[in-house]
Amino acid sequence: MIAVKELTKRYARTTAVDRISFSVEKGQIVGFLGPNGAGKTTTMRVLTCFLPPSAGTATVAGFDVLEQPREVKKRIGYLPEAPPLYPEMETVEYLRFVGKLKGLSGADLDKRVDYVLGRCSIADVKSRLLGKLSKGYRQRVGLAQAIIHNPDVLILDEPTAGLDPKQINETRDLIKSLAGDHTIILSTHILTEVEQTCEQVIIINKGKLVATDSVRNLQARTRGVESVRVEVAARDSALNFEAVQQKLEQVQGVAQVVCKDPRDQRLIFEVQSQKGQLVRGDLARAVVESGWDFNELGAAGMSLEEIFLELTGNETAGVSKDAAKNPKEAVTEVKEPVNESKE
């Protein structure tokens, strides 16, 4: 659906995007991440035909962004960080206006307006002025205008910025429900949003591609070791924390054992193996042979934040606090050359 090959964008003596290549399959949700100056926004502008590439190629739904920009634009829905709304217009009036701009008319226009009102849960505010809507409803209207012409590709820039936790969850659920019908590129500062929403992650740094893979595969590739979550419970009496930890540490191939949730009748450990060692089976046998109940054994990989910082470097990542969620979730927005204005 999206194919980028050796894409390069230069500004005078600055190379904002340096020969990056990646592909996105139809129906996928992909998280697009990068620290300050990485070239993320420039790449998105090239894909939306707002900027021409200096070298390389990019195609959307089989159409080249440089040679066939009109065809590409017909197949893209775009939601910028600030939704492009006219505060003096009513919701349904605005959607009909956008639909006409995108080539809809007559019964097709009526059908699509009714569809997006229901799909984005904004039918109850269809007669209200956009300027009077809450932030959450404005974001929903922004999504509605992006999908009103049923595009193949959606490009969403910070779709949950400024929303409260309830609105964030509702917007995430809506975005996930759009997958399959649309291929989605999601740019966000909130890393847990990518973990919860996206199937694939693309990370760029200083204009270069540093990773493109699923979150699970990135965890394995980055750490290079097995990290296992083990839950142990007592059968008749309280567990001895030190005895359990010592037993797990004695398993061949184990590098480190950390207790994550100590309780009288249940202990949860995160066990990290030595590089190249698989320890799950031996851990299970050690627990059972010691007479303890073995409740759970599962992967405990690196968080996306840890992966991001390791791949891009702590000093460049620009992690900031996000008050609505976990304090470590946010990544500072990419800033592009000053001679450009936000689309």
UniProtKB/TrEMBL annotation:
SMART domains: AAA
CDD domains named in the record: ABC_DR_subfamily_A (cd03230)
Stretch list, region Disordered: 318-343
InterPro entries: AAA+_ATPase (IPR003593), ABC_transporter-like_ATP-bd (IPR003439), P-loop_NTPase (IPR027417)
Keywords: ATP-binding, Nucleotide-binding, Transport
GO terms of molecular function: ATP binding; ATP hydrolysis activity
Superkingdom, taxonomy of origin: Bacteria
Domain ABC transporter intervals: 2-231
Transport found in the keyword field: yes
Compositional bias of kind Basic and acidic residues: 322-343
Family: Belongs to the ABC transporter superfamily.
Protein name: ABC transporter related
Organism encoding this protein: Candidatus Sulfuritelmatomonas gaucii
Classification lineage: Bacteria, Pseudomonadati, Acidobacteriota, Terriglobia, Terriglobales
